[in-house]
Amino acid sequence: MTRQEKFLWSLLAGVLVILFLLSSTDLIIKEKKTVIYPVSVIISDTSDDYYSNFRKGADKAAGEFNADVSFITLYEEGDPIRQMELVKREIDDGASAVVLFPVNPVECGKVLDEMILNSPAIVMGSSFPNDQIKGSITPDHQEEGRLLGQAIIKENPPGRLVKIICSDIEYGYNKDIYSSLSRSLGEAGFSLTLYENPGEEVLKESSGEEIIAAIDVKSLDHAADILSGNPGYGGSRIMLYGIGSTTKILTELDRGIIKGLVVSDQFDAGYMSIEKAVKAVHKGVEKEEVLLESHYITKEHLRESRFERILYPID
Fold first, then answer.
1. Residue 34 contacts by C-beta under 8 Å, 6 or more apart in sequence?
2. 315: pLDDT confidence band, cut at 50, 70 and 90?
3. What string of H, E and C letters represents the secondary structure of the chain?
4. Could you read off the pLDDT of 195-238 as tens digits, one per residue?
5. What gap in Å lies between CA 249 and CA 258, rounded to an integer?
6. Poorest-confidence range of 57-71, 133-147, 194-208?
């Protein structure tokens, strides 16, 4: 073999080695590693049953913004101190950002004022006056109450009693919804009674039609369950209205158990919460409150294309 042939074979072997290194290792060309951002969503309930559409939006955003999303539930309902301890725990355990559904906005805000968070937080609701909160996403709760009141006023004669039910008036933003709803109904000549954590007796019929307005999804789900499972309530009609939606609640609306609902786009809320959380990690988002549009819907709206995406988002 001539010297030139040896040189060519050596050169070819060298090229093959280089090609192997390029294709199978990062010794020559360093691959850019994908950074994954752990984001903890801390909800205000002991179960995430009422967050299915929100979760779908959050999961979609997680894939697009390289987030690893965890849903954290409460050990005990109605405990803002414990909820804020969970916020700190998740950050101390490595969460790049947190998304918070405050169980009691006022109390959670007070606890936060005494805390130092090493990661940004996004609030699902009206924002706290605290620099550690980097944004908020929320329906207009006053508007939700107003829309529900307008529907009741339009569909029922004045002077009637409206039973307003909720799990707890201090829970979430129930107080804001209640103030708007009661103002609208009161100005229209309706009388009101508020029931917190109502039992079945509140839903029993009186001499005539009952109007019941559930201002949070938990109390709405509970009331629909009772009415759906008790044929004895059929003697006189119970007009059940509410705020919020799940697949189960929409089924009861379709069946006529629920008269009407005020809903907002929880898929978008979930998506934007993760988007803003990841951007906040990079300091790439200014603090702002995003208001979600609210809609009043009845059974007739369920098949309309403009509401299908809001009510039945595709995974």
1. 66
2. low
3. CCHHHHHHHHHHHHHHHHHHHHHHCCCCCCCCCCCCEEEEEECCCCCCHHHHHHHHHHHHHHHHCCEEEEEECCCCCCCHHHHHHHHHHHHHCCCCEEEECCCCHHHHHHHHHCCCCCCCEEECCCCCCCCCEEEEEEECHHHHHHHHHHHHHHHCCCCCEEEEEECCCCCCCHHHHHHHHHHHHHHCCCEEEEEECCCHHHHCCECECEEEEECCHHHHHHHHHHHHCCHHHHCCCEEEEEECCCHHHHHHHHHCCCCEEEEECHHHHHHHHHHHHHHHHCCCCCCCEEEECEEEECHHHCCCHHHHHHHCCCC
4. 998 877 777 655 567 899 999 999 999 999 988 877 655 445 78
5. 8
6. 194-208
pLDDT tens readout for residues 263-308: 999 999 999 999 999 999 987 667 888 999 999 999 999 989 989 8
Amino acid (1-letter code) at residue 198: P
Task: Determine the Cα–Cα distance for residues 45 and 244; give it in Å rounded to an integer.
Answer: 15
Quote the tokens at residue 42. Answer: 């801390």
CA distance 114 to 93: 19
- What pLDDT, on a 0 to 100 scale, did the predictor assign at position 235? 44
Mean pLDDT (the chain, rounded): 87
Distance of CA 140 to the CA centre of its chain: 14
- How large is the greatest C-alpha to C-alpha distance in the chain, in angstroms? 112
**pLDDT on residue 12:** 63
Lookup result for tokens 């809320």: 269
